[in-house]
Amino acid sequence: MIPFLDLKAQYLSIRPEIDATVARVISSGHFVLGPELTAFEERFANYCKTTHCRAVNTGTSALHLALLAAGVGAGDEVITVSMTFVATTAAILYSGAKPVFVDVDPVTWTMDPGLIEAAITPRTKAILPVHLHGLMADMNPIMEIARRRGLVVIEDAAQAHGAEYRGRRAGSIGDLGCFSFYPGKNLGAFGEGGAVVTDRPEFARRVSLLRDWGQEAKYDHVIPGYNYRMDEIQGAILNVKLDYIESWTEARRSLAERYDALLSDLPLARPRPPEHARHVYHVYAVRLEHRDEALALLRDAGIGVGIHYPVPVHLQRAYAELGYRAGDLPVTEMLAKEFLSLPIYPELPLERTDEVVAALRSAAAPSTNERSIRKAS
Length: 377
Ligand SMILES: *Cc1c(COP(=O)(O)O)cnc(C)c1O
What we know:
Aspartate Aminotransferase, domain 1; alpha/beta
């Protein structure tokens, strides 16, 4: 048995610190937007190599407020990808704008910059690339197009804490960067959480107002806002976990390196990170032809596997009104049918990847015999 994720193992590894932190916050009587949260914001901004961080209640809220802070609203279009969790699209719709999807690059699985220009219209206001699975989108061409065409860039870095592109951190290249601290993310709270990072003080100020009912001072509401504040407990917990994020990230990278080596002779495709990238492996994905069969075989063998994500956003019933059809984003659709995600988390012992790969080996190339046995059973 190898679970896809083991959140308890991480808690146990730092339990005394966490327990003391939770007890301290409860006795302090500060439960929302308190001093420990502010301390976390400062350190997380620093970690992302940005000047400002504003913590909010979820990654989805971070995206929503980043869009509003950048002035995106009704009648605007935002260019994004469908190869992502639905939250990216949902946040664009919350802002009143319309998501416009471009396909992903077949090598990196992130936004294909070559398709952006053709998607720009007079209504386009922003580009929202997603750093899928922990690998940053190709930011240089994206920024070049955005600057030339006067567009805002918002990075969805929900899966990419500490990822790098040519030495620059996720969240620090675009005008705003958005993170999620959902428990299963690389930096996870014990509950929900999110953050917006930026170098622009006016954007940070707007996010501060918007997350707390538009209040400049208590009961002085200068703009309509939201209740998107982060709990003090989550901020304090994240502040403890931030001490470990680099070693946890390196553990993920070692596991990925081992998977890479063990899988090198199998007919599997993987997203190929460019030389200059620091991939932080929120997800380790492999692509194979008989994916659904492999998924069943791996699950039978007790290996926790997943698909992130099986139905692209543009083909979800919830977003049918956007008017996309099967065939509109061929690379995204092909990947959604052919890839699966293997267990990867810092507490997974390196040698246990052998078991995963052994199971995958029989699944990737099932003999006719094995296949007919499965069919018959
Ligand atoms: C998790 C995630 C989000 C949303 O974050 P929540 O904290 O769950 O609201 C947005 N975008 C991507 C790519 C994600 O993986």
